[in-house]
Amino acid sequence: MAKIVFVIGSLGKGGAERVISILANNLNQRGYHVSIILVYENRIDYPINEKINIVCLNNYISSNYIVRIPSRVRYLRKIIKKMNCNLVISFLTEINIYSIVSLLFTHIPLIISERNDPYHDPHQKLLRFLRKVSYKYADGIVYQTEDAKRFFKRLYIKNRIIPNPIIENLPTHNKLNKRNNKIVTFCRLTEQKNLKMLINAYDKLPKQLKLEYQLEIYGEGPQKTLLKKYVQEKKLQTRVIFKPFSNNIHEEIINASLFVSTSDYEGISNSMLEALAIGLPVICTDCPIGGAKLAITNNYNGILVNIRDEETLTKKIKLLLENEDIADNISSHYKETREKFSESTIVDNWELFLKEII
């Protein structure tokens, strides 16, 4: 079977990292020889099959900032060539650029993948420029949505639209279990997630609903301290609770009354997909680049609201909390989400594309 190398910054908590772990494990189980190169950090937060070879590039890189970037390119090229692989797959813009430059003139095919909204990410002008001039040297690219593909309309390489998979063996809400009085979200605590919108919408709920329902925010990230301070300023610290992300997150939220995602932009939110799949009523911002509307048919299996529209978000939260029948009907379509985004379906699509590129 073919030898495949994945390239990613690390395998720490994150959507792209989770998808690579799923792809690597599944392709390895299907007989492929799989390796993973970690460019930045030897961190592994997801289970990886023992047969998969993992190499951390930082073990070879000088700590000197001036030589770090050329060293990464040189050693990435050296390690990949030594692995004698048939295909390299890289995720995320900066890693894609490293991979493209490292593989120039090697004749090793490369598939790159965009995992966020290319209109907003990356923010740095230099990275946006390098993306523009380098991506044409890849052999294929995987997008998550049609909107993302549209951004690269002048990129004439082979491409596929393949959304994120939902992990196997997710629990599902048991209808016999009464939902608890919690509104939940789980994500990386960054500006992109616009959690202030969720906090503000919760604050605008009628007093009785705020007394009855608690907002729980699971996750870590650079905005955690700022958000905690914001909650204190609003005197909501007894009603808005911050909790660390855990490997048992689905069991912790499975009986929640509502899941809410308020991102300003997103590829396809893994937390949204998983909340839909375990049978939670879901409200999500209809943010670029179309990942939410790919998974949610408005008022059928979830509710979409415009980005930054706090008033409508408050109304929709109130609607679902006060109308259990509506919430139950919306959450009852969870099986359709599981089938559409199942691991086997998504990995099948990836396997067809990589066979086309090799």
Automatic annotation (TrEMBL):
Domain called Glycosyltransferase subfamily 4-like N-terminal: residue spans: 14-166
Start and end residues of each Glycosyl transferase family domain: 172-332
Cross-referenced InterPro entries: Glyco_trans_1, Glyco_trans_4-like_N
Gene Ontology MF term list: glycosyltransferase activity
Matches recorded under Pfam families: Glyco_transf_4, Glycos_transf_1
Protein name as it appears in the record: Glycosyl transferase family 1 domain-containing protein
Organism for this UniProt entry: Massilimicrobiota timonensis
